[in-house]
Amino acid sequence: xxxxxxxxxxxxxxxxxxxxxxxxxxxxxxxxxxxxxxxxxxxxxxxxxxxxxxxxxxxxxxxxxxxxxxxxxxxxxxxxxxxxxxxxxxxxxxxxxxxxxxxxxxxxxxxxxxxxxxxxxxxx
Length: 124
Fold this sequence. Notes:
Organism: Noviherbaspirillum galbum
Protein name: VacJ
Mean pLDDT: 91
Oligomer: single chain
């Protein structure tokens, strides 16, 4: 049992999973959309966000936390797909964000590399 992970970190994990309207948008705006891209493929390998907010106690709290920051998350997602902002959806709203993304929440984050320090990379 020595390989069993024994360390958790003091963070929650949030992943935003795109829904069908995101796939529809990609296929509509991209002049050369990824051939055969499915919603299942799109939902894989999404960015994961570590959150230290102690008030998060479940999915409802995580959704409220994300929804208070919806604009930042929306722009991060579409900006990762297309840097040309003219391709971004116009009139983005919280309602639209909720139609476009599911919030996935994990309260336990295991550190399987406890002997290797976590490094931060500045993307500025």
